[in-house]
Design a protein that fits this description.
alpha/beta; 7-stranded mixed sheet; globular; 10 helices
Length: 283
């Protein structure tokens, strides 16, 4: 007897918008298949303390689609924290997805898949989707330019169809964890040894120019982790994930970061790694 999935839950964090774009394609496709879907943007200050008990209390036949951008080879902390807070599932399934900026998708999918499986949400499908590099908004031709594109969207939609076909079975076949552990061993070992918190030390420091700041609050409103507080000037706390929304969106350029050395480093790294395929679905 086929399973009846009562709800699809779509959770994502998208400081720069690429992961939200992929989530939007998924939401349209899931809804077209007549499955109720609830979307939660972790970048938009959701009340997670309220959401988790409400959506998971029944623990019954929920498919969780959960997405993150790749930062320094890892998922962003809000996504992993959400997974860690989820109660153990009884009849749950999952579909992790990541967007990456043409340097490396790292071990993000593997880390998400392993955490989801531990919580009782076996992985039915997954995706890595090429996207414009979020730190290169000022460059004329950034890495991952013009992505996600129509072909990327088509592949994401195909993933949703394939997962839907699996869910028609009484015992949907899950992916083996090794399927998402696809990086070269040396690169994988490097990323396993360096956590995201350690990698943050290599990000450029931010400088706030008090004389330019008008206290408009745009940096506070657009910080996905509530790391910024306004006093005389924006104060950036240690939970900052270095998405650089504050630098990119400040209308007075009152928050600065020297990105030129970063551009050179990440372009050199992309050339050395040459990860292919760029967009890939796993089913």
């Amino acid at each position: 007897m086929p399973l009846h999935i009562r709800k699809a839950l779509l959770v994502y964090c998208s400081p720069a918008g690429s992961t939200a774009h992929v989530a939007g394609i998924m939401r349209q496709k899931i809804a077209a298949l007549e499955t109720p879907v609830t979307a939660i943007d972790l970048s938009d200050d959701p009340d997670v303390d309220f959401i988790i008990p409400q959506l998971f209390d029944a623990k019954d036949n929920i498919c969780l689609y959960i997405g993150s951008p790749v930062y320094a080879g890892h998922p962003v902390p809000p996504v992993m924290e959400f997974i860690a807070r989820m109660p153990q599932a009884e009849n749950g399934f999952s579909v992790p997805f990541v967007t990456w900026g043409a340097v490396t998708s790292g071990i993000a999918l593997y880390e998400m898949g392993a955490a989801l499986a531990y919580k009782g949400y076996p992985v039915l499908g997954a995706a890595k989707v090429l996207s414009r590099h979020s730190m290169m908004w000022a460059m004329e031709v950034p890495l991952g330019a013009d992505h996600p594109d129509a072909e990327d969207d088509r592949m994401v939609a195909a993933l949703i169809d394939a997962v839907a076909d699996k869910l028609k079975r009484a015992d949907p076949p899950a992916l083996a964890p090794s399927v998402l552990d696809y990086q070269d061993q040396s690169l994988r070992d490097q990323m396993v040894q360096e956590s995201f918190e350690q990698a943050k030390t290599r990000f450029p420091p931010k400088k706030v120019l008090k004389e330019r700041c008008t206290q408009c609050g745009i940096c506070v409103e657009n910080c996905p982790v509530e790391a910024i507080h306004l006093t005389d000037v924006p104060e950036i706390g240690p939970v900052c994930i270095h998405c650089l929304n504050c630098v990119r969106l400040c209308p007075e350029t009152a928050i600065l970061a020297d990105l030129q050395p970063v551009y050179e480093r990440i372009c050199d790294r992309a050339e050395k790694i040459k990860e292919r395929p760029c967009t890939q679905i796993f089913i």
